[in-house]
What does this fold into?
Amino acid sequence: MKRSIYIGDADEQALLNWLCENISPLVMTTKAEFAYFEMYHGDDDKWVMNTTDVSDVSSSKWDTISEVTFRTKEDLMYCHLVWGGSIQ
It folds into this structure.
């Protein structure tokens, strides 16, 4: 079962820092060929964060949507309580 949440209008670095401090430390980043953003992986893939650019001409401060996939339902719910977003 995939446990994902989509979080929009959030500072990507702040979200990454929160994941590292509260779920598990960052162990590596990957970047697919031709991809614009990197994918971040927590220790033992307890979480994986991928972002996508949603910029337009009337953009807001942060122009990304972050998808975070969690290994456990509890971590997913904790993230949702802190950051909001849409659970998939």
Notes: The CA atoms of residues 30 and 39 lie 5 Å apart.
